[in-house]
Amino acid sequence: MDTLLANNLTLGYGDSIIIDSLDIKIPKGEVTVLIGGNGCGKSTLLRSMARLLRPKSGEVVLDSSDISKMRTKDVAKKMAILPQSPTTPEGLSVYQLVKQGRYPYQGFAKRWSDEDEAAVTQALEDTNLMELKDRTVDSLSGGQRQRAWIAMTLAQDTDILLLDEPTTYLDMTHQIEILDLLFDLNQDKGRTVVMVLHDINLACRYADHIIAVKDKTVYAQGKPEDVVTCDMMQHVFEMLCDVREDPLFGTPMCIPHGKGRCLIKQAQAEAQAQQKQTV
User: Fold this and answer.
1) Residue 45: what pLDDT?
2) Where does the chain cross the membrane (predicted)?
């Protein structure tokens, strides 16, 4: 199984540095989730790991090789990426989209084969899309569209999957559907999954390994129960919260402080009590 790591990695756009001197190693065969505040560099880091952004310094290493020195198709045979909110050409069917995942294996002397067809069929089956394969992608629900894009990455037949906010804009039902799918792919197929998530509680539920990004580098990394603490939430997200044990899964569960209807009821009760004392 392929390894993926970053050594002394510095990333940015123009004169702006987004990630500075970062070192990480992605655990093989596990689910890793990147967390952090908006604009902290999670997506930038993921893009660099997929060789979509050239480092200013340092290197991303894939299977002992500097990824910047590898051929594009060689990288695509080892690692697939699903960017944030991908767009589909109008009228493209699910089957046609998933076929795009086989591009690393095509070439002048290599045409569509039984192996390619088998990979596409397997990807459609893994994502429960066989019955929808002839539907146009733009006619699907949000969760179904996201499954179609994931199927395309699966058709690449890579050990590593990189996903940038795969649950963005999805309702709770579809979020769980997508995350359950990725969890099953990890458990049943041994795929290494790396993804960016905003929901800390879902990150804790599905991740084996969490990397919290702050101040252009890694603030903390490790198991969810070691990383997600009240102190981390305050420093990384600048938010006060309680961290309890999820009653269903035993993973950390963040309960943010802030205003809400319960505080209104509490204030009303205190006002009523005070009024009675005055009377």
Assistant:
1) 96
2) none
Question: What's the rounded Cα separation, in Å, for the pair 264 and 266?
Answer: 5
pTM for the model stands at 0.89
Residue 35 and residue 211 in contact, taking contact as beta carbons nearer than 8 Å: yes
Give the pair of three-digit tokens for residue 33.
């989730």
d(CA 133, CA 150): 13
Mean pLDDT (whole number) for 6-20 = 95
Q: Among 43, 38, 32, which Cα is nearest to 224's?
A: 32
Residues 180 and 140 in one domain: no
Task: Quote the domain boundaries for residue 135.
Answer: 90-156
* Exposure of 80 in the CB half-sphere (CA atoms within 13 A): 23
List pLDDT tens digits, range 245-269.
999 999 999 999 887 776 666 667 7
- The encoded tokens of residue 251 equal 């993973």
272 contacts 251 by C-beta, under 8 angstroms:
no
Tokens of 185: 């792919």
Count of residues making up the chain:
279
Question: Which alpha helices (DSSP H) does 35-113 contain, by range?
Answer: 42-49, 72-76, 94-99
The alpha-helical segments, DSSP class H, found in 64-130 are 72-76, 94-99, 114-126
Contact present, 204 and 224 (Cβ < 8 Å): yes
CATH of the domain at 41: 3.40.50.300
Give the tens place of pLDDT for each residue, 220-250: 999 999 999 999 999 999 999 999 999 999 9
pLDDT by residue (tens digit) across 118-163? 999 999 999 999 999 999 999 998 889 999 999 999 999 999 999 9
Is 201 strand, coil or helix?
A: helix
At position 135, the amino acid (one-letter code) is R
Q: What is the spatial distance between Cα 44 and Cα 13, in angstroms, rounded to a whole number?
A: 10
Query: Which of these three, 99, 125, 156, is where a domain ends?
Result: 156
Q: What's the average model confidence in pLDDT over 108-120?
A: 86
